[in-house]
Amino acid sequence: MNIQSFRIILYIYPTLNIMNKPIYFLLFLLLLTSCADFIEYPLEKEYVVLKAPADSLITRDSVITFWWDTHQDAKYYRIQIVSPSFEKSEQLIVDSLVDKNQFRIELNQGVYQWQARPENDGSVGLFQERRTLRIIK
After folding, report:
1. What percent of the chain has a predicted confidence (pLDDT) above 90?
2. Distances in Å between the alpha carbon of 7 and those of 3, 21, 28?
3. With 0-12 CB in 10 A as exposed, 13-18 as middle and 19+ as buried, what is 15?
4. Between these two residues, 69 and 8, which has the higher pLDDT value?
5. Which of 68, 109, 112, 134 could be disulfide-bonded to 48 (CB atoms 3.0-4.6 Å)?
């Protein structure tokens, strides 16, 4: 049983009249622990911290791995990459849902900006930070 299920039990148990009925209590516990896997926690105020590549990176490497911290309640992550920036976007390179906290792509010479956010089946998080990189030849 995880800590969130335990908190729910502590909150709901006093309102139930099942203290003298242990079988109902056991069924109640089973139901709560079984449903914990289906509960989607809200992400509306949550975000991930970008790890790599560093902001304002200039590189000759055309294969770039984008990497960010995981979030405990995220099932997916949305990564967006544009060129040259989100404010002056000329080309949307990537707008994808991925199930890991990394994304690898080969990019042409140019300037790119990227961002990532956590998502699950019930909500989406925030794009908190944007980073820029330049690929040169």
Report:
1. 66
2. 6, 21, 14
3. exposed
4. 69
5. 68
